[in-house]
Design goal:
173 residues; 5-stranded parallel sheet; two-stranded antiparallel sheet; CoA-bd; CoA-binding protein; NAD(P)-bd_dom_sf
């Protein structure tokens, strides 16, 4: 797959199918990007498991933090990597040992590792690199457009409302 650009249907399909996310590199520091991405994803109804060995056993935003992927007590749909590119191969190795395998390996803005991505894809896992699920969700749901950023997605359709929390939802084409 070409990881230089992604079709909105590919990203939207991922965001609509994922329910549980392991965030590797989650921070308890409320000024770190991983903290507010975690907060945003929780607010949108995703079940997010912070992964941070230094915070293991403690809570971040009310969610128990784990030291490694294998410690999470339930199946994970997506592994969101908030670590330097050099850490990606080891994280992908951990993900490939999970049973069942996650559906998606997502690497945050500035994070790309083509060899690790190829290994994940060979195992049937979708891969996204150098993107942020918070930004992509906001763009595809139309929320970013409301805050003055041109999302490139225009629709006269009424926003989707989900049970239990406020969400525009990612629009299907």
């Amino acid at each position: 797959m070409n990881h230089d650009s992604y079709d909105n249907t590919y990203i939207g399909g991922i965001l609509n199918s994922v329910k549980t996310i392991a965030m590797v590199g989650a921070s308890a520091n409320d000024v770190r990007p991983s903290y507010f991405v975690l907060k945003y994803l929780l607010a949108k109804g995703f079940s997010v498991f912070p992964i941070n060995p230094g915070q293991a056993g403690k809570e971040i935003l009310g969610r128990m933090t784990y030291a490694r992927l294998a410690d999470i007590p339930e199946p994970i749909d997506m592994v969101d990597i908030f670590r330097a590119p050099a850490a990606v191969p080891g994280i992908v190795d951990q993900a490939l040992l999970l049973d069942p395998l996650p559906k998606v390996i997502w690497m945050q803005l500035g994070v790309r590792h083509d060899e690790a991505a190829a290994r994940a894809e060979a195992a049937g896992i979708k891969v996204v690199m150098n993107r942020c699920p918070k930004i992509e969700y906001g763009k595809l749901s139309g929320e970013i457009g409301w805050t003055g950023v041109n999302s490139g997605v225009l629709s006269s359709k009424k926003p989707l409302m989900r049970q239990g929390f406020q969400s525009f939802g990612v629009r299907q084409k």
